[in-house]
Amino acid sequence: MNPRTKSPLQLPLTSLRGIGPQKARLFAQLGLRTLQHVLFYFPRDYEDWTRRIPLGKLQPGQEALALGRVVDVDQRGTGLGKRVVELLVEDDTGVLRAVWFNTDYVLRVVRLGDWIALQGKVRRGPHGMLEMAHPRVERIADPQHHQGRIVPVYRLCQGLRQSDVQLAVRSALRAAAGQLEDALPEPFRQQKGLVGIQEALEQIHFPDDYVRLQQARRRLVYQELLVLQLAVQLHRQRLQQEQSVPLEVTDKIDGRIRRLFPFRLTAGQEEAVAQIRRDLARSFPMHRLLQGDVGSGKTVVAVYAMLVAVAHGYQAALMVPTEILAQQHYQTLRRLLARSRVRLELVSGQQSRKERKELLGRIKAGMVDLVVGTQALIQEDVRFAKLAVVVIDEQHKFGVRQRARLQQAGPWHPHYLVMTATPIPRTLLLTQFGDLDVSLLRDMPPGRQKVHTYWVAEDQRQQWWEFVRKKLDQGRQGYVVVPRVQGGSVPSVQQVLQQLQHGPLKGYQVEAIHGRLPSVQKQQIMQRFVQGQTQVLVCTTAIEVGVDVPNATVLTIEHGHLFGLAQLHQLRGRIGRGRHVGYCGVFARADTPEAQQRLEAFVQIQDGFQLAEVDFRLRGPGNMLGTEQHGQAPLYIARLPEDQPWLEQAREDAQALLAQDPRLQDPRWDRLRHLVLRRYGEVMDLSHVG
Ligand code: ADP
Ligand code: MG
After folding, report:
1. β-sheet with 387-393: strand ranges across
2. What are 192-247's pLDDT values in tens digits?
3. Which numbered atom of ligand 1 lies nearest the CA of 299?
4. Residue 105 near ligand 1, beta carbon < 6 Å
5. What top-level class would CATH report for the domain 251-281+297-420?
6. Is there an atom of ligand 1 within 6 Å of 295 CB?
7. Of the candidates 148, 206, 336, 485, which lies 20 to 30 Å from 648 by C-alpha distance?
8. CATH 2.40.50.140: which residues of the chain?
9. Ligand 1 centroid – CA 266 distance (Å)
10. What gap in Å lies between CA 527 and CA 521, rounded to an integer?
11. What predicted TM-score, i.e. pTM, was given to this entire model?
12. What's the topology of domain 51-146?
C-alpha cells in the first residue's frame, strides 16, 4: 500500500450512507472512526438464524427464534398498577404476540412496521394466541438478508444497535470491495490454505455457513498471530544488535565457581548453566528467563552467571522485589562466597545517608563486585563502573516487560537473567515473553519433601489447630497467612495474631509481621523466626515471598479464596523445604464455581506448571498478566490458549520468513511489514525495520 494515496479504507464513517455526525460519535465510543475500523470490528458472537422457526410453526413450550414485521404496538395499564407493552408481529405463515411488563424499553427500540427478531419461550396467551413474555428483541435492518443466515452480534455501546453496526459493516464492505489489499500474497496464502482478505472479512461478518466462517476466522487469526510473532522476533533481532561484553567461561573459571557450591547441580541447573554460558560468550546481551518452581534452585544458577562477570573483572547485580528478600539473598550469598574474595554488598533502605553515600561511591569506583538490592538499584544515584550481569528475581511478579535498565558507565548493555517462580504457560511465553530465551528447571534438588494440602472445613478448625500444636511440640515451625486486602470479614494480621495468642496457639511463641512495620523491626522479627525463637509467624503475602526456613513445615492459609492460584502455590513453596514433610491447611469459602475449581486444583495438584495451566484456563491470559500493564496491544480475534496451534504455526512461519528476509524488505511483504509496524512498531521498538 502506498501510504501517500488515500485508500477508501481510511475514509471516516460519515462517508457511509446513513451515518451522520451523531451516529459517528457513537461509533467513535467503540473506537470506530474509519471504514477500516468497522471492517476489522469482529463480531463477538453469532446468532444462528438458520434455525429460525416460521411463526405458523411455533409450538407452546418451545425456546425459539422468530422473525416478523411489527403490525401493532400497544401500551396500556392493567388494573393492578402494572403497565404492559404489547407487540403483534407477523410473517407469511402466522402471528405472534410479544409482551413486556413494567418496561417500555422495547418502545424505544422498535416501531410499527419494523422487522424484528424475537428470541424466547413460546407459551399460550389469552384467547389461545401464542406469545412470548419478555423475549430478547432485535430490530433487523434487512430482513431478506437475515433469512436463514448466521447473524453477527457485535459489542455495542449505549445508543447503538446491532442493526446500526451491521449496516455500517455492510456498507464498508461494499465500499472496500476490490480495494482491500491483502497483507498475505496469493502464493503464500495458497501454500497455507488461507482464504483472501476480502473473502475473510465478508465471511467473518456475514457468514454463508459455518465452514466458511471457520475459514475466515482461521485466516484472520493466523494473520493476527503472524503479525505478533514477526514483531516479537524483530524485537529480538533489535536486542541482538546491542553491544555487550562477551564473557567466555573457561574451565578454570567454571571450576572456581563450582567449588563454592556445597552440592552438585541438578540436571536442570546444569542445562540452564550451559545455556547461560553460551549466552554470555556472545557480544550481544543475554535476555534469558529462568523459570523454575519454588525451591527448584534458581539462586545457584543466578550466582553462577554473576560470578562469571566477577571472574572477568566486571560487576554483577541481583535485584529482588522486597527488602526482606534482599536481606535474605545477601545472607545466602555471604555464606556461599565466604571462601572467595568476591566483594559483596547490600544496598538497603536502612542504611544511613552516610553509609549509602560511601557504598554508592565504592560501587561507582568499581570497588564492589556483586551488589544485592531492591528496585532501589535502578535509582538515579546508583551507578556502576562496569556492570556486566544483572539478575532480576521476580518471584511471582510479572514485571519482565519492564526490565530494569541499571545505570552504568560502560558503553555496553549488561546481560540480563530474569528469574520467575510462576510457571508461564507456553502460549504466554510465545506472545508476551517472546523476546526472551527460556531456561526451565523442571527437577527439584534431591531431598525435597512432599507437601500435604488440605482444604479445611469450618467444623475442622479445632482439629487443624490441634495438629499444628502437635507439629510445634515436635519442634517444627509454622506460618499463618492472611490476605493483604483486609476489611469487612477479613481480619488483619494483628487481629489474627490476637486470636491465635488467646485461642488455639496460647502459650506458643507467635509473632506477626506486616508491610507497615519499620524495616528494622521486620528484620528483627524475621531473624527471630529464622533462628527458631519464634514458632509461628503470622504474615501477608507481601512479606513471605522467597523466605527460606527449612524447619517451618506447617502452613495455615486464612481466607484462601481471596488468593490466586499462583499465590497459593507460592505460599505452599515456603514449606517442605527441609528434611520434614510439609502440611498446608487452607481455610476457604468457595463462593463461585471458579473459586471452587481453583481450590480443588490447589489441593490436588503439586506441580506448579500444571497449576499454571489450570490458572490460565480459569482466568484467561489477560487477567493473569494484566496485559495493559505490559503496554502490549490486545489480540482482537485470536483466543488463547484455544488457538495455540495457530500460534505455533505463526511462530514457525515468522521464523522462516525472517530467516530469508530479516527485515521484510522484499516488496511482496510491504503490506505485512506495514501491519507489523503499525501495530507493534512503537511498543516493541522496531525502529530498525522502517
Ligand atoms: P528458588 O528456585 O525457589 O529460588 P533456591 O535457589 O532458594 O530456590 O533453592 C532452594 C533450596 O535448594 C536452597 O536451600 C538451596 O540451597 C537448595 N539447592 C539448590 N540447588 C541444589 C542442589 N543442586 N542440590 C541440593 N540443594 C540445592
Ligand atoms: Mg528464590
Report:
1. 344-346, 370-373, 315-319, 387-393, 415-420, 287-292, 437-441
2. 999 999 999 999 999 999 999 999 999 999 999 999 999 999 988 888 889 999 99
3. 6
4. no
5. alpha beta
6. yes
7. 206
8. 51-146
9. 10
10. 10
11. 0.72
12. OB fold (Dihydrolipoamide Acetyltransferase, E2P) (2.40.50)
